[in-house]
């Protein structure tokens, strides 16, 4: 559920995490999920199919997206779209002026323009079956435009746990790779993007039990 606190803005849950105020109702769980699926599809995977024109950096016109969204869902509104974006703890989308885009997760061809990564090491969680293959061939995107790397071993483990019960974490020597011309973009505090990561920058992290 998404609600709005007068003092702290949109939040997810029953009470504002900043002050404990219950706030004003904006969107229930079912509609939040439906709207989230639509926005994800429109901004990451099939903008053309819903009637959007996306530029090279992944931006689309906010007013047009709202018009399309409101025709599809009678209960949808600009405020509900903004609430979805601003309350998202995963920071999946961003709005700038009259434009909106997904920060990551694209399967369409985009050329994102985020700042260069400044962390010396990055991390990537995989299944045990994938380890040897990736150490030999490197990391390349499968169904997405970019490889999504994590900023901590814990975040890499969390991401990989969605797909495997016993994830293995690979450490990427981002400092050396960037010195060699490999580009890494810092999307937010958790995610860094790369077009690919060659195998010579990868080692397995020995996680503490």
Automatic annotation (TrEMBL):
HAMAP family: KptA (MF_00299)
Family affiliation: Belongs to the KptA/TPT1 family.
Protein name as annotated: Probable RNA 2'-phosphotransferase
GO terms, biological process: tRNA splicing, via endonucleolytic cleavage and ligation
Source organism: Methanococcoides methylutens MM1
Gene3D superfamilies: 3.20.170.30, RNA 2'-phosphotransferase, Tpt1/KptA family, N-terminal domain (1.10.10.970)
Annotated function: Removes the 2'-phosphate from RNA via an intermediate in which the phosphate is ADP-ribosylated by NAD followed by a presumed transesterification to release the RNA and generate ADP-ribose 1''-2''-cyclic phosphate (APPR>P). May function as an ADP-ribosylase.
Keyword terms of this UniProt record: NAD, Transferase
GO terms of molecular function: NAD+ poly-ADP-ribosyltransferase activity; tRNA 2'-phosphotransferase activity
Enzyme Commission (EC) number: 2.7.1.-
């Amino acid at each position: 559920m998404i609600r709005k606190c007068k003092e702290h803005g949109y939040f997810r849950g029953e009470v504002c995490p900043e002050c404990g105020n219950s706030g004003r109702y904006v969107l229930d769980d079912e509609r939040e999920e439906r709207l989230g699926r639509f926005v994800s599809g429109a901004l990451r995977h099939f903008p053309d199919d819903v009637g959007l024109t996306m530029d090279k950096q992944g931006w689309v016109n906010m007013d047009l997206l709202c018009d399309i969204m409101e025709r599809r869902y009678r209960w949808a509104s600009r405020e509900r779209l903004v609430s979805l974006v601003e309350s998202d703890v995963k920071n999946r989308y961003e709005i700038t002026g009259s434009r909106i885009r997904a920060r990551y997760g694209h399967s369409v061809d985009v050329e994102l323009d985020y700042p260069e990564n400044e962390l010396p090491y990055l991390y990537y969680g995989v299944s045990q079956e994938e380890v040897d293959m990736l150490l030999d061939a490197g990391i390349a995107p499968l169904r997405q435009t970019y490889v999504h790397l994590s900023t901590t071993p814990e975040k890499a483990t969390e991401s990989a746990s969605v797909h495997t019960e016993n994830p293995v974490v690979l450490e990427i020597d981002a400092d050396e790779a960037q010195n060699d011309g490999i580009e890494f973009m810092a999307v937010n505090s958790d995610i860094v993007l790369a077009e690919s990561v060659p195998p010579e920058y990868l080692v397995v992290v020995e996680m503490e039990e």
